Amino acid sequence: MSAPLRVLVLWFPDWPLRAALGDALPHPPTALMQANIVVACTASAREHGVRVGQRRREAQGRLSSLRVLPHDPDRDERAFLPVLQLIEEHAPGVTLLRPGLAVLRARGISRYHGGEEAAAAWLVTQLTEAGFPEVRIGVGDGPFTAETAARGPQRCTVVPPGEAREFLAPFPVQVLRDEQITGLLLRLGVRTLGEFAALGPVDVRDRFGERGARLRALAAGADSQRLAPRPPDPELMRSVEFETPLGGADQVAFAVRQTADAVMLALGEASVVCTEVRIDLTDDNGQVFSRPWLHPSCFDASDLVDRVRWQLEALAAQTAKDPVDEARAFGGISAVRIVPVAVDDAAHHQPGLFGSGTDERLHHAVSRVQTMLGHEGVVTAALAGGRWLADRQVLTPWGERAVAPRDPASPWPGSLPDPLPAEVFRPPRPLGVTGADGAAIRIDERGALSSDPAFIDGTAVHAWAGPWPVHERRWASGGGKKGHRFQVIDDRDRAWLVFCAGGRWWAEGRYR
């Protein structure tokens, strides 16, 4: 086994929590759950006994007000990408171990700053000024030793060359993060890394296999893991400036065609495709209008030109709608910048030999219709949280990422259970619900009906159920929105969801 490489590990404690909650401190007592197991928790939660590895019920038993959020590894990686880019600016060759943990070779940066301890202190200062004061740095023989040093109480910990075994000896075997083998070691009475390293390598391989031999080498400070430095990001941004500002959307769209082609050429050279782009429009007053755009698969040059046109049309419509802001509105576009924000490996978007034709034709057809009708001419529906059916519908333009304003996973007491009506009326459709005598039905404060529903819009009622009261935003002026829901089936076998509010009846939806 080759000699361990001197490396520098940067550790950002509780990174999944920062990715989920942001950088505003202090964080309220919060735990991230995966499969009902705590994978991360804030310091305020740890003060009440919440620990990583606890089951959800046990953690909430320690702190009833504990806020529980689902763990999203993809979100952790997306949030850590800017940090990697920041480290890359100060020390090229950084390698991602996992979100919140990065490693780089110590030789280059330590030579430049006059030593490993000085280099680590300088990096801590730079990252602290950039908004990451929690960073911890460890330097040692190999990533395992350096990571263990970084998790110590000091901001910077340097393990001298050749002293990794002595440094690791007092640590418990659990730091190896292998439950199966550490469980066997504990049952055998081996509790520290020093005791594990003292075992013969042949005996360990015979008893625990190659994986056990690898862990014993880590415990002995012989970490020979190779580093794969993160390649520098290709320059994908392209821009164009106009000597004479252009005022028409079609003029600007025509002028940026070559710029869009240049962006696609840069993406092709990097073997990536763009799934999210930001377009910056600069007017002749120096004001910049920026907007991100998403794509359901990946952008091509014509898609980029369309987004420039749609952004200009939206700005023109906003100016026409609000003449007061006419002085601040653009009088002409002097520069356009197209910045790919999110890219993906081009191999993931290659058409398959079978089964991809329908999706491609669908996307092509919908995109053509959207080009003719405008950005908001074609929308897709997503489900959000809420008690009223109209509130649960979120319409998003084709190609945009649907963002639910109300979390559908949160509890919504009084909401309609599944199955939901297939047709939702926006706005609700007024109708008449009367009793057998033709009189309008009233509902008192206790939810009692003046008579049973017999007719709905002149059609006889076959069956009905209800009422179910719904009353939300009680603290709002006027008492909030309230009413009583019913399910009604008429003699034509049509099922309706209706509600009564203020003495009037409305059709909220209809079942198919």
From TrEMBL:
Keywords: DNA damage
Source species, domain of life: Bacteria
UmuC domain segment(s): 25-150
Classification via SUPFAM superfamilies: DNA/RNA polymerases
PANTHER family: BLR3025 PROTEIN, BLR3025 PROTEIN-RELATED
Protein name in UniProt: DNA polymerase Y family protein
Organism: Microbacterium galbinum
Source species taxonomy: Bacteria, Bacillati, Actinomycetota, Actinomycetes, Micrococcales
